[in-house]
Amino acid sequence: MTQSLSRAEAAAGRVSLWRGKDVKISPLSGGLTNENYLVEAGRERYVMRIPGTSTELLSIDRVNEVYNARAAASTGIGPAVLEHVPQLDVMVLEFIPGPTMSAETLQSERMVRRMAESFKRLHAASPFLKAFDMFRLIEAYLQIVEEHQVRIPADYRQRLPLLAEIERAVRVGALPNVSCHNDLLCENFIDDGQCLRIVDYELSGNNDACFDLGNTAQEASLDDELRAVLCEAYFGRLDRQQLARMNLFALMSDVGWTLWGAIQAKISTLDFDFTDYYTTRWNRALTVMESDRVAAWLREARGAGP
Predict the structure, then answer these.
(1) 142, 59 Cβ separation under 8 angstroms
(2) Are 103 and 111 in contact (CB under 8 A)?
């Protein structure tokens, strides 16, 4: 028996939901921070989430996560939280039947419009517990990098003046904070046949809606045409200022999650190449930052037109 499965069985023994039932546990793929398991108890299926090692260094607040997961579930977009074992920070969640999405399955106008509908429902949830701000998170991550001697790209800090300029630009057309997911890996979307459900709320928080839109555009590698469709479907019209803000937040997703990946490369016990992950994200961000696209987005985000 592997150490992880042994840990999962010990955690499952603390869950009252299936106490007295025969339980079968099998690992679920896809998680980059936590361990996720399918638990079959009788005729019912559940997802059990066990937190990863030292995730407090990733600025993950488990109280915030549970609160927000319940709020997201109330909209029908997040899975129901069926039990929480606070001593272990283990959550038991509704199992959502249906295919897990990928960049390829999301790259169509139909799917982008479905994503927009899911975001509108999620963003209408009651306020989440805490705020999320990628610019402040980058500052926190850089402090962790210093304290724990984490290796990051050598030229990362050279780009900080540009990040400050981007922050000033996106504040011009800022939207009221809403309940945002903030970590929209394609695999966090599950198609239940009715709508695109969204799972995994450990980095969720009240934020500008354009961050979710830009983040998902980056994760799904949406081209300019599909990003425009996402903007139009969410706002009801193609708003050039908000589209520019989406694109800047898409860039900031790569910039911020570069540090997340670097910290994970230092602390994670998961079998995943986090060094390749953060290097790929940083190289993609550099390509955009060194292009003339950023200057155009900055002008449009400030409301100055193309």
Answers:
(1) no
(2) no
Beta strands in 56-163 (DSSP E): 81-85, 90-94
Token representation of residue 250: 């898409």
The per-residue pLDDT for 33 is 66
Do 207 and 184 touch, CB atoms closer than 8 A?
Answer: no
The neighbouring-strand residues paired with 24 are: 40
Among residues 201, 178, 181, 211, the alpha carbon closest in space to that of 62 is found at: 201
Q: Which two tokens stand for residue 254?
A: 């790569």
Residue 1 pLDDT class (50, 70, 90 cuts): very low
**CATH 3.90.1200.10 region(s) of the chain?**
103-301
Per-residue model confidence as pLDDT tens digits over 19-54: 888 899 998 865 666 788 999 998 899 999 988 665
| Matching CATH number, 3-94, of 3.40.50.880, 3.30.200.20, 1.20.1080.10, 3.30.379.10 | 3.30.200.20
Q: How many residues in total does the chain contain?
A: 306
Token pair listed for 249: 């937040």
Radius of gyration, alpha carbons of the chain? 19
Average pLDDT of the residues in 255-275: 90
Hey, what amino acid is at 159? Answer: R
Each residue of 132-173: pLDDT tens digit? 999 999 999 999 999 999 999 999 999 999 999 999 999 999
197-223 residues labelled b (16+ CB within 10 A) or e (exposed): bbbbbbbbbbbbbbbbbbbbbbbbebe
CATH architecture of 103-301: Alpha-Beta Complex (3.90)
Q: Please work out, in degrees rounded to the nearest 5, the angle formed at the alpha carbon of residue 25 by the alpha carbons of 73 and 55.
A: 60
How far apart (Å, rounded) are the C-alpha atoms in residues 75 and 77?
5
